[in-house]
């Protein structure tokens, strides 16, 4: 299976409309890939909180339209990263779209864990409530976004739902890049799954981005890793390795659930 991770740079001097068209052209350039992935909040920048309200769009807004067309023209499964969605009730969400090679939308994932503690995304956006998987012909994807990577229980839930390959779209800051690599490998090892973790390049609202998108196999081996700048990271991997790993080293079968919590 061939996956292309587009580590796009977010330039504050580039308009959202121009970036949409540029992202679409980058997707079209990946014809022949099975899966193409874009990062978190690439239309606006993950830390550009001041423009979230202004640039929010409905689910089937311009980002949906441009990405659906790009998926169909390229003939690829497209994980279109995420954008700022405005729901009919006015709530903002950090929303991921996945499109099939015919351009039909296959999945919507709203980020469950919102970053910022008492500011930014954590107070401006609603939290998603559903784990989302997508069945491709070769593998089943489990979807996560950026800060989700720090919460292993989400990934175990995705494994229980059939996920074999995790796609993590992110706008991860450079100052915590060591955590990015460590957590991507940890999620792969503990779940015996592939991790395709894609971050952005450039700078979001003066927050330098980590780049260094990474693909990790079910044993925790790094198959490919990008640098700091905009680039397309393309990797070939064998989805059958997930089942083989889980059979060879059946650690997931030894999980013990429902243990009692001691009183405090």
UniProtKB/TrEMBL annotation:
Superkingdom per UniProt: Bacteria
Residues in CN hydrolase domain copies: 1-239
Family annotation (InterPro entries): C-N_Hydrolase, C-N_Hydrolase_sf, UPF0012_CS
CDD domains recorded: nitrilase_5 (cd07583)
A Pfam short name: CN_hydrolase
Keywords: Acyltransferase, Transferase
Gene Ontology terms for molecular function: acyltransferase activity
Gene3D superfamilies: Carbon-nitrogen hydrolase (3.60.110.10)
Family from the record: Belongs to the carbon-nitrogen hydrolase superfamily. NIT1/NIT2 family.
Protein name, entry field: Acyltransferase
Organism: Streptomyces nanshensis
């Amino acid at each position: 299976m061939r996956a292309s991770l587009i580590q796009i740079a977010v330039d504050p001097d580039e308009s959202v409309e121009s970036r949409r068209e540029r992202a679409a052209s980058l997707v079209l350039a990946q014809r022949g890939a099975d899966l193409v992935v874009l990062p978190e909040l690439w239309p606006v920048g993950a830390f550009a909180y001041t423009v979230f309200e202004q640039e929010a769009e409905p689910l089937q807004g311009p980002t949906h339209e441009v990405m659906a067309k790009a998926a169909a023209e390229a003939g690829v499964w497209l994980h279109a990263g995420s954008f700022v969605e405005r729901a009919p009730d006015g709530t903002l969400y950090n929303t991921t779209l996945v499109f099939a090679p015919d351009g039909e939308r296959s999945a919507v994932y709203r980020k469950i864990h919102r970053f910022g503690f008492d500011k930014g995304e954590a107070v401006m956006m609603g939290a998603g409530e559903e784990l989302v998987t997508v069945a491709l012909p070769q593998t089943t994807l489990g979807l996560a976004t950026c800060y989700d990577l720090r919460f292993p229980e989400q990934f175990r839930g995705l494994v229980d739902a059939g996920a074999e390959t995790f796609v993590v779209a992110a706008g991860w800051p450079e100052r915590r890049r060591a955590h990015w690599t460590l957590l991507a490998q940890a999620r792969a090892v503990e779940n015996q799954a592939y991790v395709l973790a894609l971050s952005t390049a450039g700078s979001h609202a003066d927050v330098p981005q980590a780049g260094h998108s990474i693909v990790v196999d079910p044993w925790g081996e790094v198959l490919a890793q990008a640098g700091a700048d905009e680039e397309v990271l393309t990797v070939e991997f064998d989805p059958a390795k997930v089942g083989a790993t889980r059979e060879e080293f059946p650690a997931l079968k030894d999980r013990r659930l429902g243990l009692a919590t001691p009183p405090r």
